[in-house]
Amino acid sequence: MLFPKRERSYYQLQAPLTSLIDIVFLLLIYFLLTTNFMVDEGIQVKLPQANATSPQANKEITIYVDSTGKVFMDNRAVSLNALFTKIKEKLGEGTHVPVVIKADKSVMLNKAVRVMDVAKAAGADRLVLATEKE
């Protein structure tokens, strides 16, 4: 039995790439926009600079000391006595949580040391003084 010879088409099948390209561009725009809105929250202080710094990745308790010497925790001004109780509450049983002190570089050293003493008295065993890399 003889079969008739069919003509071959020279057109190849192609997958539609238009929708795929649209999705890729939308994802690109999404990631570009979301990375621009990541801002460091908290009180604005100018940190001192240091050469040997390493970023912290753990959960931490952050205390700010602004240029006038006011102490802030959770974006609220607190006294040193109230700071002691707040740190004690936040630490709970886990004394391994680092307490980060972000003191303005123009603040007197005495005020930053007093904040560190209060944190140590509250039970913090890991104290970190935040700096910026030069």
Question: Which CATH architecture of the domain at 49-133?
Answer: 2-Layer Sandwich
Which sheet architecture does the biggest sheet show?
5 strands, mixed
Provide the CATH top-level class of the domain at 49-133. Answer: Alpha Beta
Helix % is 25-40%
Strands across the major sheet, in which order?
A: 4-3-2-5-6
Q: Compute the gyration radius: what is it?
A: 29 Å
Q: Strand share of the residues? A: 15-25%
Give me the secondary-structure category: alpha/beta
Q: List low-pLDDT spans.
A: none
Counting DSSP H or I runs of 4 or more residues, the number of helices is: 3
Ends apart, CA distance between termini: 86 Å
Mean pLDDT figure? 79
Overall, the morphology is elongated
How would you summarize the topology of this molecule?
Blueprint: H1 18-36, E1 49-50, E2 61-65, E3 71-73, E4 76-78, H2 80-91, E5 99-103, H3 109-121, E6 127-129, E7 132-133
Helix pairs in contact: 2-3
What does this structure look like?
By secondary structure, the protein is α/β, with parallel strands linked by helices. It has a domain at 49-133: Nucleotidyltransferase, domain 5, CATH 3.30.420.270. The chain contains three helices and seven strands; from the N terminus they run H-E-E-E-E-H-E-H-E-E. A five-stranded mixed β-sheet has the order 4-3-2-5-6, with helices on one face. Strands 1-7 form a two-stranded parallel sheet. Helix 2 (80-91) crosses helix 3 (109-121).
